Amino acid sequence: MTSEKDDLMVEHNILKLELKRLRQTLNQHADGVMNLDKRRLQLQKAMDERKIDIQIHTDMLIQQIKHAQGEKSKISAEMHERCSQIDKLRKRYEILMTTMAPPEGEEEHSAAYYVISAAQEKEGLQREGDELDANIRKAEKEIHALENTIKVMNARNSMYRSNFTKVDHSSEDLEEERTLEEQRRAVMDKYKYKRRQVRELQEDLDAMSRTYDNLAAEEGTIGNQVGESENRLEGGKKQLSEQQTKLDRVSKQLVRYSRDIRTTKGKKTHTLEEEDIDMRDMHDFNKDIASQLVNSIQSYPEAFSTLTNLLYQSNIPIPPPQRLEAPGLPPGPPPPPLLSQLGVIRAV
Q1: Is the pTM of this model over 0.70?
Q2: Would you say 322 and 295 are in contact if contact means Cβ atoms under 8 Å apart?
Q3: Predicted local distance difference test score (pLDDT) of residue 111
Q4: Cα(62)–Cα(343) distance, integer angstroms
């Protein structure tokens, strides 16, 4: 009986110890659950704040996209207008080259040849115009002399008319007067025709000279613009290729570092170091986006002020705006497309 009582006491003590151990374990698990709840609430709060930041960035990027689309439409309209002007100039050039083309069977000449030919033709026309002016002056003098002669003849005729009551239409003086009058009219008609011909030739020559000068200036301007555009395109392609090579190399390094960290930690999921890398990457990405936004709208004071206020309210550091590139210098590398950046933010 005593031994059974001792056994019961021992068993009772053992059960009390087991109960105490179970209570300690339960308290430990309860503390762990409480800590996990606190951690969950903290993560939920951070996620909510991050969602608000992402929404703000998304709204700003949407506004930027709308503005860029408006600029695109404006530039497209301007480009169509320039293209129509270029087509008109090309048609005028083709018409001019067709009119100046050599006859069939002859060799085609260069632009310098046509310039020299035009100069020679202009000189010939100038010489012909000078000769015509000299002839006109001489004819004017002759006409003046004929007019004086006609005046003298008219005076004599008046005297004869006053002396005679009846004029004989077959007299030599009247015939001479008629002859001189016809000569005067013929000379005046010839003088007017020559003067009109000289004026028309001079107007045609001036119009051709102006057309050639305008075409030469427009051709030089278009050639310079095409050269500058090609240089900028080549520079942009080269810089894009270099940036893509650097990005591929950095991506491979990140993958290798992540694999090494997981191997060291003995984990197959994301580690704290990877999350830290992701956070740093996101911080740099946000900084780049903010810098691009500031540089894109720094020429618009109202939009720039609104952007700085939003960045300040979101606790995002405001990057200093970069200076504008000087005219004539090659532009820097083009920024990443806004649509692709927006897709990356949403994916994150």
Answers
A1: no
A2: yes
A3: 67
A4: 11
